[in-house]
Amino acid sequence: MAIEVRIPTILRTYTDGAKAVDGTGETLAELFTDLDTRHAGIRARIVDEEKGGELRRFVNVYLNDEDVRFLDGISTKLTDGDNVTILPAVAGGMV
């Protein structure tokens, strides 16, 4: 099962600069574990183990353009050909 994962610029140091990588897994949790076997350290930037393995608060993940927080979060099921996009939340502005 091949799943394309789009990597944001800030995490591309883990993927040797690749904008997208392929991974496998039945769920997002399995996908991120699979990615970590080839791109060591990337999972820790996405998943918060201190919060029971949930997605980090300031990381948004989309499955086929739908926010996984409105699906089953890190337990969201995946199928062959899915596209996963990882986007760190950005805050800012002027005071």
UniProtKB/TrEMBL annotation:
Pfam families documented for this protein: ThiS
InterPro entries associated with the record: Beta-grasp_dom_sf, Mopterin_synth/thiamin_S_b, Sulfur_Carrier/Prot_Modifier, ThiS/MoaD-like
Protein name, per record: Molybdopterin synthase sulfur carrier subunit
UniProt organism field: Streptomyces avermitilis (strain ATCC 31267 / DSM 46492 / JCM 5070 / NBRC 14893 / NCIMB 12804 / NRRL 8165 / MA-4680)
